[in-house]
Amino acid sequence: MVGWYDPGQLARTAIQVAISTIFGRNSDRRLFESLAKKEPAGRNAGPDLDVSETKGDDFWFDYIADVGDGFNSTYTMAYYLTEPTLPLGGENTKPGQILIFGGDEVYPVANKPSYEQKLIGPYETAFPRPKPNADAPPLPHVFAIPGNHDWYDSLVEFSFNFLEKHFGATRFFGGTGWKLAQQRSYFAIKLPHGWWLLGTDMQLGSALDTPQMEFFDQIMKAHVKPDDKIILCHAEPNWITRAMYPDLPEFDNRNIGFFEGQILKRRTNIFVAGDRHYYRRHEERSDGPKENATDCTAKRQRIVAGGGGAFLHPTHKEAVDTVGSQPVYELKKSFPEPSESWMLGLRNLFFIVWNWKFGLLTGGLYVLTARSFLSTYLGKYDFRDLYEALYAAAHGTLTETFSLFWVIAIFGGFFLFTDTTSKIYRFVGGFLHGLAHLTGVFLVSWQVSRFIDPTKPPVNWTIGQLLLGGLLVFIGGFLIGPIIMGIYLFISLNIFGRHHNEAFSALKIEGYKNFLRFKIRENGDLTIYPVGVKKVIKRWRPNSTGRLVPHKKRKENDAFLIEGPICFSKAREHSAEQRS
Fold this sequence. Notes:
This protein is an alpha/beta fold. The chain has helices spanning 7-24, 29-36, 71-81, 112-126, 156-162, 210-222, 238-244, 256-263, 338-344, 351-354, 358-373, 386-398, 401-417, 423-452, 463-494, 500-505, 570-579, and strands at residues 49-50, 59-64, 86-88, 91-93, 98-101, 141-144, 179-180, 187-191, 195-199, 229-234, 268-273, 279-284, 301-305, 322-323, 329-335, 513-520, 526-533, 540-542, 548-550, 560-561, 566-568.
């Protein structure tokens, strides 16, 4: 799993994010794609793929998001996606004839090695391209939605791996058996029995560009019939973000509301998104008669299913019991359950165990900060002189220009790091977090000074004493810094509901993965199977074909239904619309 708190990884990701933010928003690759794919004058854009005439009783397709992190988690989900049959809810479900990647195909940033090693490699092993056989059934297709991590290289690798280039021959996704048919970073697929699957590209700023909206507008006007139903896939669940941060204008998702309301005419029946690495389903609130659990519902659904391979996100301390307005959607299911998520958050108290490399960063920063405290006769004070020691350290810091500037910069960094929409919370939380680390530096510096030579300040130490003092301060910072960070993240998340991303990315939790399996029946009803895996498989062996299979199958690793299945009745939805 990606070490998000490794100093080298932090630096590389920060640089890549800064570059993509500056250039990605000022040089939008989607505009060039739209020019390259411009339809001739007088001709409307058509769907990227039309499988509406597919023969057979049932049509299957799969959705998986936030993949390409650790091998065991990514490959476990690829393995279950490609099993010939997967027993769920008393039914032997089948692999999809279409596979949708719902965003963030690789972590931490998009580049050629990451795509090859973390995504293409595992999926090629799970479903290698078969040899040509005239009697074999048609191969499935793959489509992908870019997430923010895919945009970190301005969609270069995403475009190379997922967009069809029209060179005459059929293109495949790497060496896998999935065919490509996608023309742009967004797509429209015409499914059987009056269903449509639309995938958007929200770029880095949760915004849809004008050519993209024109494309979907043409699809809606020229191809989508009045009684057709729509499944809409976004890279991010804007309904969750708006509920959590209602007072921040940058989370208004800008023209997403216009797109869903004016372009799609509020005809979306199923909303699906990734970005948050858990499973969570909201259902449209209705004042009508209560339906039985086994009934096919006509209520619209909003589903987050971002459990394709990346670290787990928490489901507790998110104020999302209801989302949206007109209509309101009610929370129906979370995986993991919030109580279990809260218990997993206790692991932050052992932050240093999962992120020991972070200690290299805090150790170095403690050495730099200790200079502010070691410029005085700090070592001459013992434990009974705590007040005098604190006064000497504070006086030395405030009267020396560099030390004062450095401490102010430290507090500024903690203010920026604090995850909140409240200025008061940001100030108090950042101040206390920074003060905790400064207290740690003070205590370490004080005891190191007493240990080496309490009779004189470090400016008079020998070179050997300075080197030893620096090493001891580094060791103290290596141990204390991560402990303070873990306690801060634990308190912030489990008490105040902040730092959801930072607190759980630190834990590198491989388990609690999920994907969605869809079935469209001949009568137009759609069934959603939310597939969960609580503990990923960690030991593999190759079978006779080279495909990796579990070394020893255990029940705890089995895929299961998180809830449901969830049945959406097209007929009931149509009759409800007619009545209204």
